[in-house]
Amino acid sequence: xxxxxxxxxxxxxxxxxxxxxxxxxxxxxxxxxxxxxxxxxxxxxxxxxxxxxxxxxxxxxxxxxxxxxxxxxxxxxxxxxxxxxxxxxxxxxxxxxxxxxxxxxxxxxxxxxxxxxxxxxxxxxxxxxxxxxxxxxxxxxxxxxxxxxxxxxxxxxxxxxxxxxxxxxxxxxxxxxxxxxxxxxxxxxxxxxxxxxxxxxxxxxxxxxxxxxxxxxxxxxxxxxxxxxxxxxxxxxxxxxxxxxxxxxxxxxxxxxxxxxxxxxxxxxxxxxxxxxxxxxxxxxxxxxxxxxxxxxxxxxxxx
Length: 304
Hints:
12 strands; disordered N terminus; 304 residues; alpha/beta; Rossmann fold
């Protein structure tokens, strides 16, 4: 929550220059407050693990949030109990007349599948177009980031020739961005993908700005200048064990994966990996909710 201080306190200017959120008495008195409605389109096969990871990040805030989970109707997930979907998920046809303060669209293990060949691509494109008019701010995570950049701007992903798997140092490029309030200049971020986009393609779209990048894994976070869309290539919501699970799963499939970078102590998969990204993850999700959803969404959600 912000610090509430008198309007003319000298520290306000200094704190503002340090990217610290300060709210004056006047603004505090004129705030309209209500619960936020956040929709999560969960495309991951590990539905329950992904639910838990995202809810953990969304919950550590004083804001009251109503979370609804969405699944595809044109493709029935194969790795989750049907009863779980029936109990906890809805489909697009049931919510398309509603509006939401925020939305998160997860990644999917479809790195090597052309977008047009994804079974639910037409449905996803419809959801992307719907979000433009029915959601105040949307987070596109990993595969969903590349799908959305392709759909909205025609930006094509490319194969970097290897899978990026590990914990990579990322630079904050726009230190004044509210998304990075509380961040260090360099933060560690779990990454698990075989896709990339070129900097030239991103900078050719005036609507887009690059917020962070990495020497090792390229562009990391992008947003639109109106802050309605955030594109996040890393997985700051990951648990300690997630990359370990993916690595050993791929070994079991006979894929001979590289050991995740900067993850296991001494690159020894038998040793427990230390968590070096949790604080950055908590800050990113909390900052997105607070500054790009709660602070700017209309009080009357119907006017989004």
